[in-house]
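Request: Show me your protein:
***
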Amino acid sequence: MTDTAVAKHTAAADESAPVEEATVGDEASEANEAAEAPFRPARFRLGALPAGLLRNARPRQWVKNVLVLAAPGAAGLLDDGSVLKQAAVVFVLFCAAASGIYFINDALDVEADRAHPVKRNRPIAAGIVPLRVAYAAGAVLGLGALAGALLLCNVGTAIVLGTYLAMQLLYCTKLKHALVADLAFVTSGFVLRAMIGGVAAGIPLSRWFLITTGFGSLFMVAAKRYSELVLMGDQAAESRKLLASYSTSYLRFVWQASASIAVLAYCLWALADPVNQDTLWRQLSIVPFVFAILRYALFADRGTAGAPEDVVLKDRALLGLGLVWGILYAFSVVGL
């Protein structure tokens, strides 16, 4: 082989060898450029508005409002038709109120959401739902829910729902960037959900029930913040300014301490001497409850405990533990 032929062969080999590496490098470069490029919302289309409104109401998150059954369930009154009817009304009202808050919150956070790799796809941030429409929808849903509580339930229910709306609006407008206060206000939303079912049905609320609900909620909220901080890394402040003020070690401490207190409070409640309930079944319900906390903590430790409803509904183990817990507690209520 001549020197010319060798040179041509070598050049051909050099050109063909790094093709795969160049392709991978180009793809990575394009991905980085796409991530760094400013997000541009879509043009408004009237036909896409109804679906955008429904999406922004976040029906997937309505599963959180099942907590309105917590107080009647803890009191063993889920077999009472009037209590169930009242709980169903409260569930619908809380779904409306919570969706109203989502509209207001997303409208206020539209610029920050556009800097987030996931939240930029929300209907308001994406330009599907105009800001004026979002604010109007939030006002109608919130005020409608409050009026419904007054007309269909009792004054106590309206006070709890009004407290929820006031606290969430205060959080959205003033305290979202206040250290620790943001954790407390988001947690309060879960606690008020658990309380309102009992208030609507006139059921006394146990202190252990409130402590378990409160610290269980704080556990999930802190785990979510921890996961957001891990996911976003150095860009965390672009999406949620407050995240830059927290450290992963602090948020880890919060969710670990909260999980411990929630487990302790549940054990004290389950081991207390109940009235008209089978003590053994309620005590056995401690087992799936503790393992559910440990399972959720696994996602928190990995930094993948984002939206609580996604974590719970997408994990078969958590769903199974929830089912076992429900069966054991149901046995304790009916006295089998």
In short: The CA atoms of residues 5 and 11 lie 10 Å apart.
